[in-house]
């Protein structure tokens, strides 16, 4: 990375983080829901985290676990100049006996980002079978 691109990156990161502190930008919100299963059984107690992706560190909007039927709904809001870039991380142990967790990341489309503190619509991921392998699935020990 060249010196000029490094400086631009650092300036952008600084502006992004200070704009939220100064109240510059607009409040935006997002919600996501779905159901998790593992080998045909409800994926209950699965850890879920809703983040807003940033160039430096992702910002946690909400954390929850799936209910006894494997269902969940998370929502959150953030003030930012540009459109927020939300993602859902799912941490599970379906068909996995390691010390860490399998992590599935799902990017939420921009058209599910609402203006204001309360989401206008919810992105429904449907029923997700955690026993399947997904593109970009990783192992995560620090979640």
Tell me the overall shape.
globular
Cα distance, first to last residue?
Answer: 29 Å
Largest sheet: 5 strands, mixed
Question: What percentage of amino acids are in beta strands?
Answer: 35-45%
Calculate Rg over CA atoms: 17 Å
**Which structural class best describes the helix and strand composition?**
mainly beta
Helix content: 10-25%
Helix run count: 1
As an assembly, this protein is: single chain
What string gives the helices and strands in order? HEEEEEEEEEE
What is the tally of beta strands? 10
Which stretches are low in confidence, meaning pLDDT under 50 for 5 or more residues running? 3-20
| Mean pLDDT over the full residue set | 88
Explained architecture:
The protein has 143 residues and is mainly β. It has one helix at residues 3-22; strands spanning 26-38, 41-42, 47-52, 59-65, 71-80, 86-92, 101-107, 114-115, 123-129, 138-140. A hairpin with a 2-residue loop joins β1 (26-38) and β2. The longest helix has 20 residues, at 3-22. The two termini are 29 Å apart.
List the helices and strands and how they pair.
Blueprint: H1 3-22, E1 26-38, E2 41-42, E3 47-52, E4 59-65, E5 71-80, E6 86-92, E7 101-107, E8 114-115, E9 123-129, E10 138-140
Parallel strand pairs: 1-9
Antiparallel strand pairs: 1-2, 1-5, 1-8, 3-4, 3-6, 6-7, 7-10
Main location: secreted
Keywords: Secreted, Signal
Pfam families: TTR-52
């Amino acid at each position: 990375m060249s010196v000029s691109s490094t400086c631009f990156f650092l300036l952008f990161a600084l502006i992004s983080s200070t704009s939220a502190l100064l109240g510059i930008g607009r409040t935006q919100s997002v919600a996501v829901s779905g159901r998790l299963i593992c080998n045909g059984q409800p994926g209950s107690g699965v850890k879920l985290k809703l983040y807003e992706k940033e160039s430096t560190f992702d910002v946690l909007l909400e954390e929850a676990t799936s209910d006894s039927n494997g269902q969940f709904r998370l929502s959150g809001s953030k003030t930012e100049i540009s459109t927020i870039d939300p993602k859902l991380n799912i941490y599970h142990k379906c068909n996995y006996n390691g010390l860490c967790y399998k992590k599935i990341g799902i990017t939420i489309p921009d058209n599910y980002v609402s203006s204001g503190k309360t989401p206008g619509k919810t992105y429904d991921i449907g029923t997700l079978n955690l026993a399947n392998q997904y593109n970009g699935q990783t192992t995560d020990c620090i979640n």
